[in-house]
Design goal:
The chain is of the alpha/beta class. About 40% of the residues lie in helices and about 15% in strands. The chain has twelve helices and twelve strands. InterPro entries: Met_g_lyase_put, PyrdxlP-dep_Trfase, PyrdxlP-dep_Trfase_major.
C-alpha cells in the first residue's frame, strides 16, 4: 500500500533538517537566491525532453538498434538510420548524420565547411573571430600547407564584434558580397569575451544574410548550444549545424563522435567529406556499446544540459559577489552552457583550474599544467577530471594564458557538483 507523506516518521524529516550543508555559505546564499531561475530551467528541460521522446517514438527506436556493426558497416541493423532520423527531427532539420568517426566538433565543422565551399568562394565569419581550433582550418593561422580552406583558394573575411562584444548588426547589413558563399555563425562565445547568441539572434542574422545574397549558405557552429533553448538553428533557417557528442548532445554518456544536420543536400555533401564521394552515409562501423550510448546520451542530454545551466548560474552568482567580471551576467537568460569569469592574472587562472581538478572524480591527484595544445594559438590550461577524455559536458574548465586571463567553465552532471567545486575554488583565489 502506498505510504502517505504524512505517515513518514518525523525523525526522517528531522534528519534532513539537521544535516549539515556540504556547501560554503556563498553557495548556499546563491542557491537560495536562484530558485526562480532553477524552476525556469526545469521547465525548459521538460519541454526539450518531450521533443526528444517524441522523436525517438517517431523513429521507432528499439533495442535491436543498439547492435552496432563491424567492417564496412553494411550489415548495420538500422540503428544508424534511426539515430539520424531522430536527431534530425529533434533539431528541426531535413537530415542528419551522427557518427563516431567525427573526432571532435572541429572535425564536424570542417567537414561542413568543405561541403559548402569551393575554390574562389568566400567564407564570412559574422560573429567576430572563430574559435581558436578553426584558425588553421580556415587558414587564418598558417597550417603548413596541410590543406586549409585558403590552401584550396577559399577567401576569408570576418565581421568584427562591436566594442561591447555584440554582433555588429549595422556592419552585417552590407557585409555579404556576391562571392560570399558561406556565412559562419558561432553560437557560443568560444574564447571571446562576448554574449553567446540566442537562436533568435541567429535567425535575425540569417535573414540579413539571405536578403543580401539568397544563395549564401549559413553554417552554425552549434557547440555548447544544443538543448539550451527550446528551438535550434535549423528551425530559423540555418542550412547546416555541426557539433560534438562529448558536449551537450551526448548527455555525458557518448564516448566520442559528432554530428552534422541541416538541408539534405548539404548533409550528404558533408558526409562525402567525412568518408569519400560516392560512399554516402550508409557505411562505417560503429560498435554496439557506442551505438547504445549515442541513443541513451541523446535522450538524457536535455537533463544534463539543464544541470549544466544551473551550474553556470551558481558560478556567476558566487564569483560576481566576489567582484569578478562574469559573462553571462548573473540571473540573465543562458544561450549556451559556458560561464566565463575574468580572473585578471595568470596565477589566478592556474589556481582556479587546479582547484577544479582537485575536486574532480578522475585524476584529482594530478595538477593541470599550461602548455601548447594542437589547434590552439596560445598556451592553454585544461582541468577536466572526466570519465570520457575531454568531455566538457561532465564538468571542466579551461582558458588561454592571455589577457584578460578568463576561465571558461562548462558542464556538470548535477548543479551540486559546481556547488562543491566552488568551495575549493574560493579557498584558492
Amino acid at each position: 500500500m502506498a505510504t502517505s507523506p504524512l505517515s513518514v516518521p518525523l525523525n526522517v524529516f528531522k534528519i534532513h533538517q539537521t544535516m549539515a550543508s556540504p556547501f560554503v555559505p556563498e553557495v548556499v546564499k546563491a542557491v537560495d537566491a536562484l530558485h526562480l531561475e532553477f524552476r525556469a530551467v526545469d521547465n525548459m528541460v521538460a519541454c526539450n525532453t518531450t521533443r526528444v521522446l517524441r522523436a525517438f517514438q517517431n523513429a521507432r527506436v528499439g533495442s535491436h538498434h543498439f547492435g552496432g556493426c563491424t567492417g564496412y558497416g553494411h550489415d548495420e541493423a538500422g540503428g544508424r538510420g534511426a539515430l539520424d532520423q531522430a536527431f534530425a527531427e529533434i533539431v528541426g532539420a531535413e537530415s542528419a548524420i551522427v557518427r563516431s568517426q567525427f573526432f571532435s566538433g572541429t572535425h564536424a565543422i570542417t567537414c561542413a565547411l568543405f561541403a559548402l565551399l569551393r575554390p574562389g568562394d568566400e567564407l564570412l565569419a559574422v560573429a567576430g573571430a572563430p574559435y581558436d581550433t578553426l584558425e588553421e582550418v580556415i587558414g587564418k593561422r598558417k597550417s603548413g600547407g596541410l590543406g586549409s580552406l585558403q590552401d584550396f583558394g577559399v577567401k576569408y573575411r570576418e565581421v568584427p564584434l562591436t566594442e561591447d562584444g555584440e554582433l555588429d548588426w549595422n556592419a552585417l547589413t552590407s557585409a555579404v558580397k556576391p562571392k560570399t558563399k558561406c556565412a559562419l555563425i558561432q553560437r557560443s562565445c568560444g574564447y571571446s569575451w562576448r554574449r553567446s547568441l540566442s537562436v533568435n539572434d541567429i535567425g535575425r542574422a540569417i535573414k540579413i544574410i539571405k536578403m543580401q545574397n539568397p544563395s549564401c549558405s549559413v553554417m552554425v557552429d552549434n557547440c555548447y548550444g544544443e538543448f539550451v533553448e527550446s528551438i535550434e538553428p535549423p528551425m530559423v533557417g540555418a542550412d547546416l549545424i555541426a557539433g560534438s557528442l562529448i558536449k551537450n548532445p551526448g548527455g555525458t554518456i557518448a564516448p566520442c563522435g559528432g554530428y552534422i544536420a541541416g538541408k539534405q543536400k548539404w548533409v550528404e555533401a558533408a558526409a562525402a567529406r567525412l568518408s569519400a564521394p560516392g560512399l554516402g552515409v550508409d557505411c562505417g562501423s560503429t560498435p554496439g556499446d557506442i551505438m547504445r550510448a549515442f541513443f541513451q546520451g541523446l535522450f538524457l542530454s536535455p537533463q544534463m544540459v539543464g544541470e549544466a545551466i544551473k551550474g553556470t548560474f551558481i558560478i556567476a552568482e558566487v564569483l560576481a559577489s566576489k567582484g569578478y567580471k562574469v559573462q553571462p551576467l548573473p540571473r540573465v537568460p543562458r544561450f549556451d552552457t559556458v560561464q566565463a569569469v575574468q580572473l585578471g592574472s595568470r596565477e589566478r587562472l592556474l589556481a582556479f583550474c587546479e582547484a577544479v581538478q582537485r575536486s574532480s572524480p578522475v585524476g584529482s591527484y594530478t595538477k593541470p599544467v599550461a602548455g601548447t595544445t594542437a589547434g590552439y594559438a596560445s598556451e592553454v590550461i585544461f582541468a577536466d577530471g572526466t570519465f570520457i577524455d575531454g568531455s566538457t559536458s561532465e564538468l571542466s574548465c579551461d582558458g588561454p594564458l592571455r589577457e584578460p586571463f578568463a576561465v571558461f567553465c562548462q558542464g556538470g552532471t548535477h548543479w551540486t557538483q559546481w556547488g562543491l567545486v566552488l568551495g575549493e575554488v574560493l579557498k584558492s583565489l
